[in-house]
Every structure is written in structure tokens, then in C-alpha cells.
């Protein structure tokens, strides 16, 4: 299977990882928030992940004290989760902040939008992958550290949490399929930004389907896994994936199909 770090396509639109993050914050921010943004940017430029995380957590606490919560808090929570997930490889702690981000997104989403769908699908997909990774670690510890002679240790695909989040992510994507289909067929004006987000959404959904197939394979649900990979290919071919990313995904899926024959 492909590594999530190689092909987990498109993080959220604006997070603390982005150079233009300060543009997402309004004019009412306190000097403390501005100070933290400067420090976070400096730590990131210096490659000091530990310090960046510490400052990001401080910023998160400050923003949560505001009377009116908005997308800022979601973006900071998601950014913290990505640090734990991608840089520190701490899936357990990452799930805490992904769930916080998801809860905040549900609270601030007042109407359907391409951006809202993209954020929701991306966050649910990230949660699914975190729980999948956690179960891999659990299975390894049980097999190798607890009972090296046991051959019936649980596999990553048996993780109920991972399966549920994969299903939630796919359901969230499917809810917005009608809106995505309007890009090529409707006379309704669609902004370039929305078109770009729809293509990114397809790319993210393709990778979620691909990794969900791995989850299904671990449960020996062969036919379902093959059907899911077909959907992944179709989505990837109509997405923002680069040629190299698409070709790698196609190769991995075709190799998988050969193994299933």
C-alpha cells in the first residue's frame, strides 16, 4: 500500500502550516495572538517542531477564550493535529485535536459549501488513518511484545473506529457529489476557487477510498475492496493529483488487482 505521507493529498486550505495563515485572522485579535503567530512562523522557519507545537497550543488556548468561535479555532486545532500526526507520528494525540477540529467545524458550519465539505472530508479521513495506524501499533505490540508465538493477533483492518471514520468520510463526500458534478454541467457560475477545491476534494476522496480498501482487505472483504479501488481510480482521474501521483496510485491499484485474481 502507498504511504500516507506520499499520497495523502492536500491538507486543509489554511492552517498554521501555511505562510499566509495570518490573513485568516480578523482585526480584533489581541496582541498576544499576533505575538504567537510571529513566534510560530519563526519556529517553523527554524524547523523547531517542539517549539512550534508549544506555541500553537498556546494560541489554541487563547482563541478558545474568545466569545465567538469561528474557523480560526478549527484551523489551529487541525494544524496542531497535523504536527502530531505528520511530524511527531503521535496518532493518539493527533486524534484528540482532529476530533476537536471536527466538532468546531460542525458548530460553525451554517450552510453547505465546497470548502466546508473539503474540510469535513479531510478531517474525517485523517481520523480514519490515525485510528488505522494506532491499531497497527496495537497489533504489533500484542504479536511481538506480548505473545511472539501468537498468530491470531488483531490486524489494522479490524479497527472499528477506523472503519467507521472511513465510512463517515466517504458519506460526507457523497453528500456533496451533486455539487461537485455541477462544475462541468451547470450553467450556475462557479468560482475558480470552488473549482480548485472540488478538484482537491476529489483527490482527497480518492486517497480515502484507496486506504479504506486496505482496511477492507485486512477484513478479507475482497470484492468490496476491489470495488472501492475502482472508485478511487475514477476520482483520482478527475482530481488535482499530479501526473506522478496519479500514475503511482494507478500502479499500486493494478498490482493489487493482480494479487486478487
UniProtKB/TrEMBL annotation:
<dbReference type="InterPro" id="IPR011990">
    <property type="entry name" value="TPR-like_helical_dom_sf"/>
</dbReference>
<protein>
    <recommendedName>
        <fullName>14-3-3 domain-containing protein</fullName>
    </recommendedName>
</protein>
Amino acid at each position: 500500500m502507498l504511504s500516507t505521507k506520499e499520497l495523502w493529498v492536500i491538507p486543509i486550505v489554511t492552517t498554521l502550516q501555511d505562510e499566509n495563515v495570518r490573513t485568516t485572522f480578523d482585526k480584533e485579535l489581541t496582541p498576544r495572538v499576533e505575538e504567537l503567530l510571529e513566534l510560530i512562523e519563526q519556529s517553523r522557519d527554524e524547523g523547531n517542531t517542539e517549539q512550534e507545537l508549544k506555541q500553537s497550543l498556546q494560541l489554541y488556548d487563547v482563541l478558545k477564550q474568545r466569545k465567538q468561535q469561528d474557523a480560526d479555532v478549527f484551523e489551529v486545532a487541525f494544524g496542531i493535529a497535523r504536527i502530531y500526526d505528520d511530524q511527531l507520528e503521535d496518532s493518539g494525540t493527533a486524534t484528540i485535536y482532529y476530533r476537536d477540529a471536527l466538532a468546531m467545524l460542525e458548530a460553525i458550519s451554517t450552510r453547505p459549501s465546497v470548502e466546508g465539505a473539503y474540510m469535513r472530508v479531510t478531517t474525517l479521513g485523517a481520523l480514519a488513518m490515525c485510528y488505522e495506524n494506532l491499531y497497527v501499533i496495537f497489533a504489533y505490540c500484542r504479536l511481538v511484545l506480548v505473545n511472539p508465538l501468537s498468530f491470531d493477533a488483531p490486524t489494522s483492518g479490524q479497527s472499528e473506529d477506523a472503519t467507521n471514520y472511513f465510512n463517515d468520510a466517504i458519506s460526507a463526500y457523497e453528500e456533496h457529489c451533486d455539487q461537485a458534478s455541477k462544475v462541468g454541467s451547470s450553467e450556475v457560475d462557479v468560482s475558480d476557487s470552488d473549482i480548485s477545491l472540488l478538484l482537491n476534494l476529489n483527490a482527497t476522496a480518492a486517497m480515502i477510498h484507496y486506504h479504506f480498501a486496505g482496511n477492507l482487505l485486512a477484513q478479507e472483504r475482497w470484492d468490496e475492496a476491489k470495488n472501492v479501488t475502482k472508485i478511487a481510480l475514477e476520482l483520482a482521474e478527475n482530481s488535482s493529483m499530479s501526473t506522478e501521483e496519479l500514475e503511482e496510485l494507478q500502479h499500486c491499484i493494478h498490482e493489487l488487482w493482480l494479487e486478487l485474481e
